[in-house]
Amino acid sequence: MRRTLVAGNWKMHKTVREAVALAHALAQRSTEFPAAVDVAVCPPFTALEAVGHRLRECPRIALGAQNMHWENHGPFTGEISPVMLADLEVRYVIVGHSERRMYCGEMDEACAKKVRAALAHGIVPILAVGETLAEKETGLTLDVVRRQTRAGFSAVTAAELAHVVLAYEPVWAIGTGRSDDPTNANATMQAIRESLAGLSDVPILYGGSVKPENMEAFAAMPNVDGALVGGASLDADSFTEIVRGARVVAR
Ligand code: PEP
Hints:
single chain, alpha/beta, TIM Barrel, 8-stranded parallel beta barrel, 8 strands, binds phosphoenolpyruvate
């Protein structure tokens, strides 16, 4: 049975004080979270320690990071290592978010190293895959998501697949207010699941303009095991509504 996860990606938003205030508001609302839905928030690095400290009293909300380097330490100016994340009791790390692929040159090979490093430190990687609008319009969606999935997990053993999460995030749907059609996303996610042996038990999240109004329609899809949420995770009310909507309904 796959677990359902809703993870909030706070991106480059929130000062430490603002981040702690949001974590506090979410902790207070966490009694409304359905028991079957795991919840995580991924604040910016600067707020990880303070948010982690606040969430120590709220085990319903796990701490995630938005990125990390694959090396434990060394001359990598500006980078954060898995050792540092593990030290802060970070449970999840997003790997290969499309904004990092687009703006920071994060390639499949780096994603594979990050996935490996996360697993080695007991951190669950959330590997993000998804096609751009141009790739969608030229019929390349399935080629792209299959390639990114196989490459990202190329150094993972079959047993380790029990500790990974995937996120299907069509790039054209991220931050645009234009989410994918749930049936369409489900079909792409089915193809992702079939792209590599052993993915049948791996949770796959949908990401791309998830809101309180559309979460239930995605949650009703057999391949959707939750959501990776950007903009709508920055507000405690909307994120709580999304978590409530992500409960597994009769499929
Ligand atoms: C994201 O950043 O992963 C994302 C899905 O953003 P949004 O929900 O704002 O589209």
